[in-house]
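Narrative of accomplishments. A recurring question from our advisory board has been how the design workflow behaves on a single, concrete structure rather than in aggregate. To address it, we present the structure tokens for one chain from the evaluation set, followed by the sequence designed for it. No filtering or post-editing was applied between the two.
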């Protein structure tokens, strides 16, 4: 009885939720002045002198944001907290709709008709499921990733370009997920209740493979990557790389401005695919000290082996989620399996149920995930300051990021929602570094 009522209710819930989201969106009445002026920013109170004070210098940097900019940044970032909840509810609702409507069962039957071999029928079902989920989640994606980004002045991308990018991402995600989930379902069939242990190990392997192929094969599908022209920026970046033993002379820039106004850079790749990349927003809006500070941070991730350490901890977190999923899935199948016509945990038709449960579990584990990432970001911050020796550059870059990230959250808020140190923490750390390094000791005379 409960499932039949849910079948009638769910088709109404998704459009209703979309109307609630759209009610919060309205075109901006006037152009948004979001960015800080070009060039390095050094407030008077942050300049070195006998009365230099870390807290006053930090406050002076925070005051570079106008009240309107700060309000806009806080509203955007805090709205993201609710979007995370909406996305969870929407995903769970979409998965339940596929289950109770019988769509999942029909997709499973179609995949088995195409092939009796599970190594073929399973990925065929997975592809159908991911496409169906994409279509059901598209209304919310339109709001969160397109309309809202334009509303807050973070994107000027045309709808056609946005749609093209979404389809590319769908294609890549579908291909990779079909491979990963097919192996996981094989582990479920062979390992029984211990499937989650095998799935955890597979997750780490696939994560490392993904990091290996992303710079070369995936990122160029969305943006054009070109060699960084000769000049002061390239010379400074390569000097920083040589000084910190980053084994590459492959420096590129990419055209992220067609999608977003955000600043970005990365040092990505493994085993000979490593490259340094800067987006055109960073090149066009930032000064050389800012670029050096940002690249020092990114090189910190590479030199400190975060490319290995972070995936290990995140894989352990995924393993915990898989273990909890195993318990939850078995109980759900015991109660609703016959009604939903799901044979057992190895039946691909139960993927919507598993996906919904996993989404809820990982949502609850988000603070732990953020803690892991934030700790490594803090390490990279410290490395970048010492490598670049550009505290003003790092503080200014942090303020540019704070035009769309709430700059000064509460401690609990930061623990739960932040996967990077806040703007306040970063500026404060830069001012501490500046104070403690105001005098460089001279080498003794020979």
């Amino acid at each position: 009885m409960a499932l039949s009522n849910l079948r009638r209710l769910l088709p109404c819930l998704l459009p209703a939720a979309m109307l609630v989201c759209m009610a919060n969106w309205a075109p901006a009445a006037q152009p948004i002045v979001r960015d800080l002026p070009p060039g390095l920013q050094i407030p008077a109170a942050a300049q070195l002198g006998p009365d230099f004070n870390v807290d006053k210098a930090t406050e002076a940097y925070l005051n570079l944001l106008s009240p309107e900019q700060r309000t806009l940044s806080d509203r955007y970032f805090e709205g993201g907290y609710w979007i995370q909840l909406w996305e969870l509810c929407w995903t769970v609702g979409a998965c339940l709709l596929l289950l109770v409507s019988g769509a999942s069962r029909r997709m499973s039957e179609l995949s088995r008709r195409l092939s009796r071999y599970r190594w073929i029928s399973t990925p065929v079902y997975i592809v159908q499921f991911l496409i169906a989920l994409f279509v059901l989640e598209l209304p919310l994606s339109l709001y969160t990733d397109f309309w809202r980004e334009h509303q807050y002045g973070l994107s000027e991308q045309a709808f056609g370009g946005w749609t093209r990018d979404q389809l590319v991402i769908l294609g890549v995600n579908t291909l990779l997920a079909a491979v990963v989930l097919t192996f996981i379902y094989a582990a479920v069939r062979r390992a029984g209740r211990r499937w989650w242990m095998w799935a955890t190990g597979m997750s780490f392997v696939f994560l490392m493979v993904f990091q290996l192929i992303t710079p070369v094969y995936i990122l160029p599908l969305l943006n054009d990557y070109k060699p960084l022209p000769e000049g002061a920026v390239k010379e400074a970046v390569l000097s920083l790389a040589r000084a910190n033993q980053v084994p590459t002379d492959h420096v590129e820039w990419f055209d992220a401005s067609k999608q977003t106004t955000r600043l970005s850079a990365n040092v990505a790749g493994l085993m000979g695919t490593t490259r340094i990349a800067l987006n055109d927003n960073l090149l066009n809006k930032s000064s050389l000290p800012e670029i050096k500070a940002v690249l020092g941070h990114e090189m910190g991730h590479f030199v400190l082996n975060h490319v290995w350490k972070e995936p290990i901890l995140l894989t352990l977190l995924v393993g915990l989620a898989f273990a909890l999923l195993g318990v939850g899935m078995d109980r759900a199948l015991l109660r609703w399996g016959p009604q939903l016509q799901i044979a057992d945990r190895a039946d691909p038709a139960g993927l919507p149920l598993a996906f919904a449960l996993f989404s809820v579990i990982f949502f609850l584990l988000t603070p732990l995930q953020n803690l892991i990432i934030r700790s490594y970001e803090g390490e990279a911050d410290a490395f970048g300051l010492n490598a670049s020796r550009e505290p003003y550059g790092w503080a200014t870059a942090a303020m540019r990021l704070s035009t769309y990230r709430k700059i000064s959250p509460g401690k609990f808020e930061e623990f739960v929602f932040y996967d990077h140190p806040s703007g306040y923490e970063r500026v404060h750390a830069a001012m501490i570094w500046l104070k403690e390094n105001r005098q460089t000791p001279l080498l003794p005379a020979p």
